[in-house]
TrEMBL record:
Keywords: Hydrolase. GO terms for molecular function: hydrolase activity. The keyword Hydrolase applies. This is Metal dependent phosphohydrolase. Residues 21-93 form the HD domain. InterPro entries: HD_domain. Pfam families: HD (PF01966). It comes from Pontibacter akesuensis. SUPFAM superfamilies: HD-domain/PDEase-like.
Amino acid sequence: MITQDEAKAILQSMTKGESLLRHARTVELVMRAYAEKLGQDVEQWGITGLLHDADYEAYPDQHPNVIVKMMRERGEEDIAHAISAHYTKWGVPYNNLLDRALLACDELTGFIVACAQVRPARLEGLEVKSVVKKLGQKSFAASVDRDEVRIGAEKFEVDMKEHIGFIIGVLQQHQEELQLQPQITPA
């Protein structure tokens, strides 16, 4: 199986933007936490989350085909398939829990980070109801596809509010690393 170090090297070879690197890491963390909770392969799920958008910056017109091909060449078919299916409009079937988990975690994790970034306290004190309210505001983080968020939760068979709470909790555990700690205002 591909190692964490190999996955990081692949990601960093194609992705330079801080925001996209943070997104990859946040989805990795959430996927690892769900794998642990559900008794799945933590490394495989984490690497899938880390690499799901690895080719997006370098090959936007070919995303996700470049990273999918790389994973298939390495014999990582489950990772490749999950990455190929992380957007419903691509029409790829959801064969297993890994596929559905990545779909459910990708857009929503990015959205929750966006919610945190506009708050002085960032993730600290971020409530599920605030995220739900922001989901209803089409102008906030307008690039986030709300249908993908809804469909992802349905396919993963999780309650939306519990799912949001779980993701917030995972991100809060890593807020310093993610640079999402509260802003310090000068006195």
